[in-house]
Amino acid sequence: MTTVVTLQPGADALAVRSALQGLGQWVEPSHGPDGGVAAWTLQPHSAWVAPEALSGLPGVAAVLRPPSPHPRLSARAGVGVAVGALTLGGGAAPVLAAGPCAAEDEATVEIIAAAVAAAGGRLLRGGAFKPRTSPYAFAGPGRVALRWLREAATRHGLALVTEAMGEAEVEAVAEVADLVQVGSRNMQNFDLLRRIGATGRPTLLKRGRSATLLEWRSAAEHLLAAGASGVVLCERGIAGADPELRNTLDLGAVALLRHVDRLAVFVDPSHAAGRRDLVEPLARAALAAGADGLLVEVHPNPAQARSDGPQALPFAALARLGEAVCAASHRGAQP
Ligand code: PEP
Ligand code: MN
User: E strands within the chain?
Assistant: First the structure.
């Protein structure tokens, strides 16, 4: 979005330009009828700066910004999302969310929750309902697993993030989840977004595999317009040119959303890579790009996992990742 800074009559245009440049702004002139500079247009690759810092400069008449296509989301710039006792984004320390791809049985969920807590994780992930490409693949145990996940998360002091795949289960998921997950395949399922938003729960919105940033932000706006208390965007890889990786992790999008839009953004390196040996390097890169959290799949015996085994981390690797997240926590501690 282009911002235009107009000048007061008789203002020293070059002095205003220097002041803008001093704030990290790259500017282009707009000339008035007399041929003099009437305004400076800020280039989109300029540094982020608070509007008040611009309007307060000597010689500036007004700071004009076009209306946002997603005003509720834009209004949340720099504001963290409250999830239980945690704050996600808004400058808070990054957090680790980890768990199985699918909740498989009660005992395994418990073992995994204990390992997530031991690794310093703050949220338990895991699906009771799984979107699967094949109708014959394991699609999760269904509603019964919501209780397993909630109880294990509570026992280990973790918040719970779990997916609502269809409208029919939204209320049941919202009852147990601290953060309701919208899966990649459902990013533009607007009826589902409205239903989830109406619960008032904060939501983790995964990016559609071929979604532009504007489509993704607009989907977040649907959630907020319907009543969601906050949205955390989750980059999980998009369609790429090469089949060797499951998806292409778009870290440029993460940097832009985090540093320019100043929105809360997570990265899921598991679904991006599709293979466990690349999860840790991608996770570290995500933290360096500014991710506010990681969403990672883990399993006590990845070879036996009923879904996404090749990308599941064993517990030892999860512990290493926990240390990496802790080391990146220079932005301040979580309670
Ligand atoms: C998941 O995280 O459980 C999942 C199904 O991922 P995605 O929606 O990104 O494919
Ligand atoms: Mn999975």
Answer: 3-7, 27-31, 37-42, 60-64, 81-83, 86-88, 95-99, 123-125, 159-163, 179-182, 203-206, 231-235, 265-267, 293-297
